[in-house]
Amino acid sequence: MTKATVDAVKADAKTVREILDKNKYEIDVFQREYAWERKQIEQLLADLEFKFLSDYDESDERKNVQNYSKYYLGSIIISLKDNKRSIIDGQQRLTSITLLLMYLNNLQKSQNEKVQINDLIFSEKYSEKSYNLQIPDRKDCIDAIYNNQEYEITGKSESVKNIVERYNDIEELFPQEIKGKALPYFIDWLIDNVMFVEIKTYSDEDAYTIFETMNDRGLNLTPTDMLKGYLLSNVESPEKKIALNELWKNRMADLHDIDKEKDLEFFKSWLRAKYAETIRPGKKGAENEDFEKISTRFHSWVRDNKNLLGLNGPSSFYDFIKIQFDFYSKLHLKIYEASMNLQKGLEHVFYVESRGFPVSFYNPLIMSPIKVTDDAKTIDKKIALVARFLETFIVYRSVNYRTLGSSSIRYTMFSLIKEIRNKDIQELVKILKEKIIGFEENLDGVMNFRLHQQNKRLVQFILARITNHIESKCGVQSDFKDYISREIKKPYEIEHIWANKFAEHREEFNQEHEFEDFRNKLGALILIPEGFNQSYGDLPYEDKLSHYFGQNLLAKTLSNQCYENNPTFMKYKNESKIPFKPYEHFKKQDIIERQKLYQKICEEIWSLEGFDEIVNS
Question: What is the dihedral of CA 531, 533, 539, 544, to 10 degrees?
C-alpha cells in the first residue's frame, strides 16, 4: 500500500447510530449478493443477547445502558466520492443489522415505551421513503418488510430471497428474554454500544486496495491450522506425521468444498458433542464455559483439556487424528449430505434441516451418541433417532407458539447432548421417548394453530409433512421436497379454502377478525401449485371443490370423489381410524372438524412408535 493510500484513509470506531443515522449507502452492481444464511443470523443474535444480558439488570434505569459493555461487529470499508458513500466491504453485516432494526421497530409497535430508530432505516421527503441502504432492486422487498407485509420471492434475485428469509429467521430466533421490559434497553444498547470500525477512503481504488490487503490471509493461521500444528507436533514419527498431514489436508478439502468455514463448524460440533461438560449460565456477569470456549478458540481449548480428550502421549495424539478425527469428520460430512438430500432411512435429518434448528446444537446432538466402534447400520439408526426427536421437538414447540431461539433451548439441548453421549440404541431410544413424554407441550396445540404473518414457512412445512405422509401411506407417488421447494417450475403455495370475503360468511361471524381467525386455521389450509389461487382463489368453496380433486391427496379428501373407487385410501382411512370425510359445503364447524383431522395425522406422523420403527427397520 502506498503512502498516498495510507494518507487517504481514516479509521474510526463508530456506533450503529453513527453509521446509519441519516447516512445513505450504495453498493456497486458487480459486488456479490447478500448471502448470509440462517446460521449467521443465529450466531449474531446469540452474541448480541449474551453481551447485552451480561450487563442488563431489570432494576436499571434506561440511562444506565450507556455504561454497558461495547460489542464490536468488525470493520466496514467505505469509499466516499462525489458526496456518495459506497460500501466496499461490510454490506452483509450492514444489511443484517438493518433487518434487525426493522424487526425491532415492528416489535416495539405494541409497546408503550418506544425507541426512535426510523432515522437509522430511512429518511422521508415529500412522503416518500428513501432507505439508508440504497439498493434499487431490493426496495420493494424492504418496503414490505418495513411495513410487516408478506413478499413473494419467487423469481426474485438471490439477495432479495435471502433478505426475506433472513428477516423471517430473525422473527423466529429473536430471544424471548428481550421481548418484554428489556426491549427498549436492548434497542438503546444496540444502536449506541454496538460498534463498527469504519475505514473511510476517498477513492474506490484505495478502498479495494485495503479490502484486498485485509482479506489476504495467506500468512494468517486459522484455529484449524493451530489445532493441526499442536496435534501433529506431538506425533513422534516423521512418516506418521506425513500420513496424518495428508489425511487432514484431504478432509479439509472435502469440508471446504461445502463452505469455506465448514471446518470450523465441524470442530465445534465434534468437540461439543463428545467432550464439553459445562455451559455458561444465563445471568449477569457469567463467564464463558466449555461450550462457548469451543466456539471461540477450540484450538486452545483442546490444549487446555488434553487430559479430558485422552491426549497423554505420542500414540494418543496419533490415534486422535487417525481414528477420532477421521471418523467424526466423515460423520459430519454424512450428516450434511443427509440434510441436503432426502435419503431413505435418514429422512428426519432433511426434515430438521428444512425447518431450521440452531446450528450450535443440531450437529452436536446428532453426533453425541455415535461411537467410533459403531457399525454402519447402528450409525444410521442413531442419526435417525436423534433427528426424529429433534423434528418432534420442533413441531411440539412450534404449534404451541414457543420459540426455537438458541437462548430459549440452550440448557435443555446441552443437557441432552451430555445425557445421550455414547449411549447404545436401546438406551438412546429410552431417553428420547422419556423426554418427549415429559415435554410441557404436545400436539393438542394443533387445535389452536393458525397461519399468521411470521409462521408461513412453518405452516408450509407442516402441511407438506401431512400431505406427503398420507400420500406415502396410500401408495401415491409423493415427494416432500416438491411441497417446500421454491425452485420447481410451479412452487406450492398455502391455499385458503375460504376466499377472503367476510361478507359471504356473515351468518356465522359477527366480527371480521373472528372470520379471519377461522380462515387462517391449519384445518382451513392446503397446499396448491402456484397459479391455482390466481385462477380459483376468489371462488366460493363449492366452485373450487372439483378443482381440488385434481390436486394432491390432502386436497382431494375434501371431495366426495376421493371416497369412491379408491381402495388404498379407504383401507388407510379405516385402519388408521383417522376421521377423513368429504364436505359438500365448508362451514365454521367443518373447519373445526378438519383441524381435528390434521391433529390426528400429526399424532400419527410424530408418534412414539416411530422410534421403534427406526430401531426395527
Answer: 80
For Cα atoms 592, 404, 395, give the angle at the middle one, nearest 5 degrees: 35
Distance of alpha carbon 32 from alpha carbon 27, whole angstroms: 9
Strands 525-529 and 194-201, bridge-based pairing:
unpaired
DSSP 451-517: --TT-HHHHHHHHHHHHHHHHHHTT----HHHHH-SSSSS-EEEEESS-S-GGGGTTT-SSHHHHHH
pTM score: 0.85
CA 250-251-255 angle, 5° bins:
120
What's at 474, amino acid-wise? C
Summarize pLDDT for 123-162 with one digit per residue, the tens: 776 667 788 888 878 888 888 898 888 888 877 888 889 9
Q: What is the mean pLDDT of each run of 10 residues along the chain (617 residues)?
A: 53 90 78 83 89 90 93 87 80 92 91 89 75 83 87 83 91 87 94 91 67 53 91 93 96 95 95 96 82 92 96 95 98 97 96 89 96 98 98 96 84 96 98 96 95 90 98 95 90 94 94 96 96 82 93 97 95 96 96 97 97 95
Nearest CA among 388, 383, 389, 384 for reference residue 370? 383
DSSP state of 521: B
Ramachandran quadrant class, 488 (left: phi over 0; alpha: psi -120 to 50; beta: rest): beta
Query: What gap in Å lies between CA 194 and CA 95, rounded to an integer?
Result: 15
Residue with cell 373445526: 592
pLDDT at 592: 97
* Alpha-carbon gap, residue 56 to 62, rounded angstroms: 10
Q: How many other CB atoms sit within 10 Å of the CB of residue 247?
A: 15
